[in-house]
Specification:
The chain is mostly helical and 119 residues long. 59% of the residues lie in helices and 0% in strands.
Length: 119
């Protein structure tokens, strides 16, 4: 990052610690979602009948669910779906807002011109 980008980032967040933390967490989740194939330790759909409802351990960091699927892998892959839905919702909202504003401007009656000669 250049000094100009860092200055813009600091100006946008205005030194609020909670906003910095939110950006860091969002970047971490987005990075995990993008790299899910690389960083997930197991296939999220792989069933392991020997480890049904196992507690967190060295092999399954967050444990397994009721049919033996690794929870960490499922959370990492689930982040992809969550971020996709969030992105679609934001894009849909922006499109709706822009369409609404265009129609509002087109349908608004033109402002009346004052007749300054008669006042």
């Amino acid at each position: 990052m250049t000094a100009k980008n860092i200055a813009w980032f600091n100006l946008a967040l205005r030194g609020n610690l909670s906003q910095y933390l939110a950006v860091i967490v969002l970047a971490f989740v987005a990075g995990a979602a993008v790299l899910a194939d690389t960083i997930a330790p197991y296939d999220p759909l792989e069933i392991d009948p020997d480890n049904i409802l196992s507690s967190p351990s060295a092999t399954h960091w967050l444990g397994t669910d009721e049919i033996g699927r690794d929870l960490l892998s499922r959370i990492i892959y689930g982040a992809r779906v969550s971020l996709s839905v969030a992105l679609a919702a934001v894009c849909g909202g922006v499109c709706f807002r822009n369409t609404y504003r265009c129609f509002r401007c087109l349908c608004r009656p033109s402002p009346r011109k004052r007749d300054y000669a008669n006042h």
